[in-house]
Amino acid sequence: MGGDSSTFAGDIKVEVDAAIDGLNQRLREVNRKIWENPELGEHEFMAHETLCSFFEEQGYAVTRSAYGRPTAFEVLSGSGGRLVNFNAEYDCLPGIGHACGHNLIATSSVAAFLGLSMSLKKLGVPGRVQLLGTPDEEGSGAKIKLLDAGAYKGVDASLMGHPIAGDITGSGSDNSINDGVAGIRMIARQYLSAEYRGKNAHAGGNPWKGINALDSAVSAYNNISLLRQQMEPDDRIHNVLLESEKTVNVIPAYAKAAYQARSPRLASLKVLTARVVNCIKAAALATGTEVEIT
Fold it and tell me: Cα(111)–Cα(24) distance, rounded to whole angstroms?
């Protein structure tokens, strides 16, 4: 193909647009089906089936339940050259469905994969394209498990788009909205779960015989709230109570909470996580409970 690099880039753009436009309606159908049927992490069986069947319909070989993850999948295309990876997420948030837009993440990555792989083939350009179906992003961060299993081995570039609120990307009082942002720095994350175990007692009759696990969870929450005053500006800590006993006149013997520490660098995340762990342990010590942190 003759011409300079800008002409060639223009040819590629035309081919990518044509490939995606040709599947516009089917992509919208896939997106709508995932959005209308939200599934929690590790249980995205309908989304897994929908996406895998779509690729098989388009003539691609699909590895279902890839890398030991029941709802992960992999599609590969092309030969030679560099390997570009796209990530498709499709799990939802508990109780509110696809409020984080993972249906759109899946659809945009599928479209990008198809646009690139079909264009490389038509133009005779060497290169490989990989689409990874990456489940349970909201829960365990399953991309780390996929990474450990070798899913990203040999990848030269890994890409994904994410929907985001307009006020984050720059919408203003004049109602102008940026189309999006690229190259933003994401912060590292450490997830912790703490289970507090105490002792039941009658809250009205003999509360002094109880050891209140809920107090431990509340105390840890307060400890972390105090810690925030001394945190670096870019650090973040999130905390939510997951479980406790339901009878109001019984001292709770069990409580479970989840914590998430975020920091721009792994080194600073390690320091922040250690401080969060100290907040949890201090709460258990103060209230007399046993705590298991995972």
Answer: 9
